[in-house]
Amino acid sequence: MNDRTNAIQIKRGEIVSYMGRPYEIVHVVDIERVNARECDGSDVVTLPISSLAQVTLLGDAEAVDFSAASPEDQAEARRRFACIEPTLDGPSAGSLASADSKLSVARERARAFDVALATVYRWKGLWESTERLSALLPKTGGGGRGESRIEDLIEDQLRVAVEEHLLKQKRGEKVKLERTHAALNKSCNEAGLRVPHFSTLRRRLAAEKARRRMERANRLPHEIQHSGMYGDDPGIGFAGADAPLAMVQIDHTPCDVVVVSDDEYRIPIGRPWITLAIDVYSRVVLGFYVSLDRPSVVSVGLCLLHAMLPKEAWLAKRGIDVSAPIYGKIRLVLADNAGEFRAKEIKGGCEEYRIEIRWRKVKQPKYGPHIERLLETTLEEIHTLPGTTFSNPKQRGDYDSEGKAVMTLAEFERWLAQFLFGVYHNHDHSALGTTPLKRWAEGINGANGRPGIGMPLRLLGDYDERLMDFLPYKDHVVSSGGVKYDNVKYQAAILREFVDARNPKNPKLKLKLRFRRDPRDISKLYFLHPGVRKWFSVPYRHLGRPQISLWEFLAAQKWAKAHGDDPADEDAVFRAYTAMEQEVENAKRLTKAAARTQARNQSRKRHHERSPKPQAADGDDPLILLSAPPSTPSTRPASDRNSVDDSSFDDVELLDASLFRRSVRRSGRRG
User: Strands, DSSP E only, in 113-254?
Assistant: First the structure.
């Protein structure tokens, strides 16, 4: 998220960099290779797509947080996208359309939105360079044709007039535009504002009508019925899943296998969770995420990022030797009704990438059959691993799952990648008649008379670069003591200029700034400076506090309350956390459960050291998010919810005081 153009198009005529030298793409061979000519030479060579980069990277460009932009700027970005949307190449090879027809569409959009043709192409270029809605946010200063010259208060009056006019039409009332303009005239005069011209109102009304028509045209049926679900091509599946990335289903499941702490002690620590995302058209697994913690906003965000971003660096970092040339921006995500899928952070992150997200009916697996079947297939394969718990106690019988467990969490993650990308993708799928990977390639390049969509936009950078789009956030006023976020105080010198600052658009109100936080490590906040548009980290006000997860903090609050302390008192909560850690440390040799708890905590820490996470320089240095792995020790693991183990393991939850004390008493009685 450190710049707006950190992506490349893989298509003929594009200039890319390979081994530090510029090349022009002359032909896309397949989903892994291109033919290219060096810009100062004549020989054509074959280059791997995985090694291509931008010719230049904007290392000092602005960072953008779409959700933190003003509602007016967000609305303007959506309006600009509505303007250019018909000009974009669609998933059915819209690039095959003639240049004349594209030009005529662009001209029509320019007239409808009252902007210059050059403005339409400029907006189109900004979108295609990133496929992120934040690229269309208006820059400070404004001006120029197509930019709003009307003051904010007048713009609000104009927007209300348009909404009321359309609402009356929807109710069947006959309302003339002249009457709407007269009402606008009256409201502006009463507020002491300049009255917009009649033609301005007419153009805004026409643009809003066009935007709503396009939304209705692009909307998929609210409910996908089984009748007529499948077309002539059995691989298409659900209506609308007519190309790669058109429709993706996502879900979680706990895995039927016990993992161990490390190579040395091999203490069983419970069952991991996996989050999978499947492309409905091709059945390829676009991405996944593995964790010891229950599903959360972070696990959904990381799975979506894993799905959209190239996999080469991720696989190489883990020493996995498989090919996974699958990536690209998703059009539609189908999910169940779990809270993490409906969270505002997921909605905001999906809007940033213009991903439509829909939720299937409650307790209706038929609306998500592809992901359900994938989870079943994956669990069936997991049942062959040592330490499996099988599907139920009857199947497990007298099999000692804990005693047979040998895989660490990292080893399980590598095994899962090998199975999904190396085995599942390359075996014939019964519904497709071919392998998922071949089906994906056919959808990209075209086959059997069906045009392909072309190579998707290749987003550059690593997961930590884009994770900020999906992190939980809150808006806070900055006081002389810094910021108080969930009863924890944070402070940095960069915040001084915002102490008791006023909202520039309404001086009667104090300015609220947006702060994001990774639930796996609450020791710092992430703050996007509205002036310089760069990210800064804001640490604890008391720097001696330990790095802990949100889940651990909530458990410490419960501990403090149980011991008569105020759970809203930051000092009391961190004292409770220290006491809990000490009690676990003192008793870890007394009980098997306590030892497992300690080992599970350490395993989380190692796993999250390898996991993507936002990075920021300490103090006042701006955050330029990098694709390289962090060089400093990583955050303390755990997410914002407890982990759930199989009840047969007689395990205790991490830092759960009541369960811990009971396990110690049981151990004493057995002793």
Answer: 248-254
Q: 45: which DSSP letter?
A: E
- The answer to whether 257 and 379 are in contact (CB under 8 A) is no
In this structure, the chain runs to a length of 671
Cβ-in-10-Å burial (0-12, 13-18, 19+) of 602 comes to: middle
In whole angstroms, how far apart are CA 103 and each of 117, 367, 451? 9, 40, 22
Tens-place pLDDT, residues 65-90: 788 777 788 888 899 999 998 888 65
Element (H, E) at 458: strand 458-459
φ/ψ region of 203 (left if φ > 0, alpha if ψ in -120 to 50, else beta) reads alpha
- Dihedrals φ, ψ of 458, to 5°? -95, 105
CB burial of 185-217 (b: ≥16 within 10 Å; e: otherwise) equals bebbeeeebebbeeebbebbbebbebbeeeeee
Ramachandran region, residue 397 (left: φ > 0; alpha: ψ -120 to 50; beta: rest): left
Distance CA 161, CA 167 (A): 10
Q: Please state the separation of Cα 449 from the chain's center in Å.
A: 35
DSSP 341-364: HH-HHHHHHHHHTT-EEEEPPTT-
Sign (positive/negative) of CA torsion 436, 438, 439, 444? positive
Residue-wise pLDDT tens digits, 516-536 = 998 888 999 998 887 777 788
What are 557-616's pLDDT values in tens digits?
999 999 999 999 999 999 999 888 777 666 555 555 655 666 666 666 666 666 666 765
List residues bridging with 47 in a β-sheet. 34
Classify strands 458-459 and 7-8 as parallel, antiparallel or unpaired. antiparallel
Q: pTM value? A: 0.69
* Dihedrals phi, psi of 130, to nearest 5 degrees: -135, -25
* 175 neighbors 168 (Cβ within 8 angstroms): yes
Phi, psi dihedral angles at 592 (to 5 degrees): -65, -40
d(CA 427, CA 522): 43
Contact 333, 349 (CB under 8 A): no
Provide the CA 244 distance to its chain's centre, in angstroms.
19
Q: What are the tokens at 117? A: 């043709």
Q: Going by DSSP bridges, is the β-strand pair 259-260/248-254 parallel, antiparallel, or unpaired?
A: unpaired
**Beta carbons of 635 and 520 less than 8 angstroms apart:** yes
User: Predicted confidence band at 229 (pLDDT cuts at 50, 70, 90)?
Assistant: very low
Q: What angle do CA 656, 657, 661 make, to 5 degrees?
A: 120
Residue 524: strand pairing partners:
539
Amino acid code (one letter) for 529: H
Rounded to an integer, what distance in angstroms lies between the CA atom of residue 153 and that of residue 196?
A: 11
Tokens of 147: 């930019």
List the structure tokens of 417.
């990648």
Closest to 466 (Cα-Cα) out of 93, 66, 56: 66
How far, rounded to the nearest angstrom, does the alpha carbon of residue 616 sit from its chain's CA centroid? 19
Dist CA 438 CA 427 (whole Å): 10
- pLDDT value of position 453: 86
Can you tell me the distance from the alpha carbon of 379 to that of 541, in angstroms, rounded to the nearest whole number? 45
Beta bridge partners of residue 273, listed in sequence order: 254, 291
Where helices occur in 383-521 by DSSP H, the ranges are 393-396, 401-404, 409-417, 436-445, 463-466
Which residue in this structure is represented by tokens 């594209």?
102
Q: How far is CA 109 from CA 3, 206, 210, 350, 545, in A?
A: 28, 11, 10, 25, 56
